[in-house]
Amino acid sequence: MLTRIVIFAKAPIPGQVKTRLIPELGAEGAASLAHRMLLNTYSQASSVLVAGTEICVSPDAADASWKGLLPGRVERLTSQGEGDLGERLARAAQRVIEEGERVILIGTDCPALTERRLKSACWELETHDAVIHPTFDGGYALLGLKRFDPSIFSDMEWSTPSVANRTIGKVKALGWSMHLGATLQDVDDPDDLRAAGIL
Description:
single chain; about 200 residues; alpha/beta; Spore Coat Polysaccharide Biosynthesis Protein SpsA, Chain A; seven-stranded mixed beta sheet; 5 helices; globular
């Protein structure tokens, strides 16, 4: 069974991405950082030879806002579609698993998700039903699954400090095995920039 790394990405449009970084970097600077992190994330993920790589975008990949901003050669490009984050994550996870692959879901705002860590997550899915890398703010930077159940993504207060713990609890309630990876630093606000060594 193969593993597919699905990168959830939002178009790096000034004023619409990384808005909490605008006071520190300005709208253009925040969007530029978001774009650089997208390219870096794809570079790291596409280097993992034991996995396929997909970018799942919002808005739709055909939208003009993406012109010239995606990596030059994307293995697979899909659209997130409508709904809250949970609905979009669930839809992508279910699609990949129903296609006969394991899935690793990541965003673009965690520079600590290196090729080595992504490869390790792929290997953990060989012997576990799920793998997660929480973040210091209570969310998660990576969620890997070899099985699908919609409860993992439902009834969740996204962008709150409870997301990772609630997700872990939901996986345990299903009786699935889970590997808990290191807690990582993502980049959402100015303090994160310093913690991640960007400033």
